[in-house]
Amino acid sequence: MPQEAKITNVEPLPSNEAKWIEFQKISWQDQTGKDRVWEAASRKTRGKSGVDAVAIATLLRHPKKKPSTIIILQYRPPVDAVCVEFPAGLVDASESPSDASVRELHEETGYKGKLKFISPTIVSDPGMSTANMQLATIEVELKEGDTEPEQALDDGEFIERVVVPLEELYTRLVELDKEGKRVDARLWHWAAGLEFARTML
């Protein structure tokens, strides 16, 4: 049984040691013409697609079960907690976001499906970072008797996948939060939208 992940030290990161991100000092003028400065973090890995990452909203269709989705549990050092997220990952330099979404879903969950929709490029935390992403919707058609496929994780990846009926997703996220896990904002907003559409419209 692997040990629990834990923080052992935190210290400032010199810019010449940063492999994945860099800090930027952005000089700009506001709407009145006043000069201002903004601090931001920027990924170093953005490829020719212009998109940093993809997240995948999966729709599992089964002949005898209600539609489900897949969430993943993964320890994230910046928040020192297990996070509840969409399957997701960086777009490789030579691939499209659409191809990355199909690849990442298979690697992190083992499932293969068809891309049904991919969002425009959206920003993740525009007050702090230049990071952007696209949200893909992938449909997986299951057959009676299908077993859960094997994940294809990279060395050093520890990702637990969880299949959740869509109608239970919002409640499950609330439960996971009470357990001390941290829910990713994109997944929470998606689940809240489904729940509010079901209960408030």
TrEMBL record:
GO cellular component: nucleus
Domain spans labelled Nudix hydrolase: 49-190
One of the protein's GO biological processes: nucleoside phosphate metabolic process
Pfam family, one: NUDIX
Gene Ontology MF terms: ADP-ribose diphosphatase activity
UniProt entry keywords in alphabetical sequence: Hydrolase
Name the UniProt record assigns to this protein: NUDIX hydrolase domain-like protein
